[in-house]
Amino acid sequence: MIMEKTPYLIPGFHGVREALVHGPVRIKEVWIAEGKKPARTEEIIRIAEERKIPIRLRRGSELSQLLPEIAHQGIVALAEKFTYSDVDHLIDISLKNKGQGLLIAADHITDEGNLGSLIRTAAFFGVHGLLLPKKRSAAVSPQVLKRSSGAYVHLPIARVVNLGRALDLLKSKGFWIIGSTGESRESIYQFDWKRDLVLVFGSEQRGLTRIARDCCDQLVGIPASGHVESLNVGVAGGVILSEIFRQRETPEGAHRE
Questions:
Q1: Is the per-residue pLDDT at 2 higher than 60?
Q2: Which domains does the chain have, with CATH numbers?
Q3: C-alpha distances in Å from residue 249, one per residue of 155, 244, 255
């Protein structure tokens, strides 16, 4: 495991609750805005008290200053550290059920909102882990935590120095590297997803990098019938992961349209 030593803040009801109940981080304090109505704070306070975590009242303006442009909802947790997984851990948990391994790689996605959305989508569909490059990529931050609504606690996340090298390692372990790109003629509905795989998403602005493309065994796309050229990466992830889940739940020999 790789530790981030800098303390960070987890904003919002869902993010704080998930961190308290399931989180891989140690919560040092819970901050609640003065005058916050008890509708949502009661559960947070109860859980924090059960875990003997101090609760502090702070001015709402102070929380907003600490978390600019983030809807913290008057509830914030001060966390000691965030634990990134390593690639070997992601490999181990993915290959427990042969042919069912499923990882996601974010190919230099810099928008924190998009990354948080992708994390939430991946956790919803039971993805085993996420790979992030260390450079030119969004990392786990308060904005990402807020956008993921606490889903990050259910998704191991690894940061790698060289994404291409990490994808090559995963390929050597038997994973298929599948890139998502709008111009591919191979439909996600035609591709056979019943295999151990890494699904690679590029940024909305640039798509997949050349290095990531060169690592891919196959490029796939979502067929479009409307006038919009592309989807938000979180939405695109949901569409593709839904098809993966559907295929893997379909018994062998069953008719597939």
A1: no
A2: 2-83 (3.30.1330.30), 85-249 (3.40.1280.10)
A3: 21, 9, 12
